[in-house]
Amino acid sequence: MMSVESPPRVHKTTSEIDFSQTAEWLAQNRLNYIGKWVVLDGGRLIGSGDDPRPIVAQARAEGVTAPFVELIQDESEPFMGGWL
Question: Distance between CA atoms of 30 and 37, rounded to whole angstroms?
């Protein structure tokens, strides 16, 4: 029997965060991390991998209060929805 893991819990923040450094990092580096989760603190990569939870825990241990977490997907191929 295959075990199904629940998706990571999302914690929302009420403070204003400047994501300009994060967006810049993603624009420059996303192709290197396709299919991986990345955890960022502004423009700094904290880590990447198949499961973001240990990387988020590492970020919190380093004092990051609002780590940015994203699954990098291959956007080079256009989406073809529906029946062909």
Answer: 10
Phi/psi-derived region of residue 42, left when phi > 0, alpha when psi is between -120 and 50, beta in every other case: left
Phi and psi at 47, nearest 5°, equal 180, 170
pTM of the model: 0.72
The CA distance from 51 to 34, in Å, is 14
Identify which of 68, 14, 12, 62 has the alpha carbon closest to the alpha carbon of residue 41: 68
Rounded Cα gap, residues 34 and 81, in angstroms: 21
3-state secondary structure 15-29: CCCCCHHHHHHHHHH
Distances (CA, A) of 32 to 22, 27, 48, 77: 15, 11, 10, 16
Residue 72: predicted pLDDT:
96
* DSSP-based three-state secondary structure for 39: strand
